[in-house]
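Researcher: Go.
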Amino acid sequence: MTTSLNVAALRQAFPVLNQFVYNKPLVYLDNAATTQKPYSVIKRVQQYYEHENCNIHRGVHYLSQQATESFENSRNYIAKLINAGHSHEIIFTRGTTESVNLVASSLGKLLMKQGDTVLITGMEHHSNLIPWQQLCHENGSQLLVARINDSGETDIEHFRQLLEQGPKIVAITHISNALGTINPVKEMIQLAHDFDIPVLVDGAQSIAHMQVDMQDLDCDFFVFSGHKVYAPMGVGVLYGKESWLEKMPPYQFGGEMVDQVSFERTTYNSLPFKFEAGTPNVGAVLGLETALRFVEKTGFDAIAAYENELLAYGHKQLRTIDGIRFIGQAAKKAAVISFLVGDIHPYDLGTLLDKMGIAVRTGHHCAQPVMDRFEIPGTVRASFALYNTFEEIDKLTEAVRRAATMLT
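Model: Structure:
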């Protein structure tokens, strides 16, 4: 193999990987659900709680000033990393789900009225489907869904036709968590912008696998979660263009998002604080910065190249198993392989794999409409990260073969 990554050294940075389950070395292949955390991230969160713990933006004493500076430095770093136009376009949230809900609620109030439409694709995670569906239910509008083909790719011509119906908002996933499909989001954004329609991109599955550039994509909103990119759970980012964020009403109300308060009226804080009500998860934000620095130092291009090698090798090895069927065979894919073997239920297969020390995900992957599209109950999903190895894929292949023999 041709990888430039020192994978053995990288693995040593992740303590959770150095353990046994059921007396077998852990093979962790559930990275699309959540990634493991390197020592540097764990230590950064620990350092915050041991030496810096304090509420931010509200105190004049030393700890508050230090915590505030660290928190805002994280915002500045993330803005630079994803090439946002301004640091105040970075809103900290609890993750992708809250970020989408924020935009659906706030932008929905600004733009949507009865009879309007929102356009999504047929491969959306529930988190980028249900908020828009609920918005449509509440205001009497309609959800438009761009079809996906038998390979698990968005039908771009159908997407274009739906744009001609004049949806007020477009919300699309960058990479499908269930299929691994990489959508041509830059093209899709441009198509939507030709109709002056704002676009939200769900980047939960792309942030750990590729460099994202807000100026290049030109999306209006981009959302992602920390725990998908080696950072703590319970933290995420909403990037929004300043022009939209300024016009949108607040999503939640309370401390930090206010300017002046009286019993008669309240005025709201400036960006980004208008959308950051309450005490944020400061430690997790600092962990997120550390995780992104870890990925940046490792190299986005090197990670992508290595994960593509893992993906190709995984398909090659698993294809040798009798009766295997891959769900999602897009021309452009991230390091996700969803599959079934014969008539074996994915839960049964996944349960046996677990007893062999192999962690995969089974079920509908919070994408039930995708499973309905392919008329299946779910899949077994193996998803790879920078610390996975070809040897682990060999173990997966042998375990699937063995489990299939036991179940047929």
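Model: Residues 62-81 form the longest helix (20 residues).
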